[in-house]
Amino acid sequence: MAKLPNLQISGRMGNVIFYVRNGKQCMRAMPQQVKNPKSKKQSKRRSQFGETAKFASSLLKVLIHPYWNPIAKKENRSGYNLFLTTNMPAFAADVLQKEQLLLIPENGLKQEQFIISQTERGIQLTWHFSKATKKADAEDELTLLIISPNGTLEIRKTQAKRSKQELKIENPKGQEYFAFWERGPLWSASCWLPIQSDNKESFLGHVVEL
């Protein structure tokens, strides 16, 4: 039922809602109802959102607050919200699409293309460093994000620099590895390292080129 206090209308009339904000008359259309909120597509979308939100909640202090909030602030958003919208596609299938998972957003530094080789003791990463861009410096340090089979995440400072062009990872133990570069307040986007590959040598497929 609509009301008329001082000739200002508040309430619903048909599919239009009237309301007063800061003394001014406003109106908006009623939101459209979802025809079938229990459809297979809607259920899958809710499940996808739930899985992404659950994953993000476990990373608030270690990743989202320090790495996502500064980026999201430029867009007047929260780091948590930006992480969700960026990473929901990785949770679209029944199996997590690790190559689509972006744990760290780009903040001024260039990612590299890694060559992954298997050794007797584990994995060796190599890359080619060029001084052709300001987004890459010889002293940039490589940081690993390691997700264990039970879902816990470890941030490991490797002290490996771009100029070194190699890093050895011993005994991976079925863990998932992501890598990114850091230099003071700057960092590159992270990328997944498919170190479980059966090939003797493989190129990283998901690489951020800037």
Task: Give a quick rundown of the structure.
InterPro entries: DUF6266 (IPR046233). The protein contains 3 helices and 12 strands.
Structure characteristics:
210 residues, 3 helices, disordered C terminus, Immunoglobulin-like, alpha+beta, 20% helix, single chain
Structural overview:
With 210 residues, the chain is an alpha+beta fold. The chain folds into three domains: 1-32, no CATH class; 40-96, no CATH class; 115-203, Immunoglobulins (Immunoglobulin-like, Sandwich). 20% of the residues lie in helices and 29% in strands. The protein has helices at residues 40-57, 60-73, 79-87, and strands spanning 11-13, 16-21, 24-29, 115-118, 122-126, 141-147, 153-161, 166-170, 176-183, 186-187, 191-193, 201-203. Strands 6, 7, 9, 10 and 11 form a five-stranded antiparallel β-sheet that branches. It has a four-stranded antiparallel β-sheet with strand order 8-5-4-12, with no helix packed on it. A hairpin with a 3-residue loop joins strand 4 and strand 5 (122-126). Helix 1 crosses helix 3. The longest helix has 18 residues, at 40-57. Mean pLDDT is 82; it is low at 197-210.
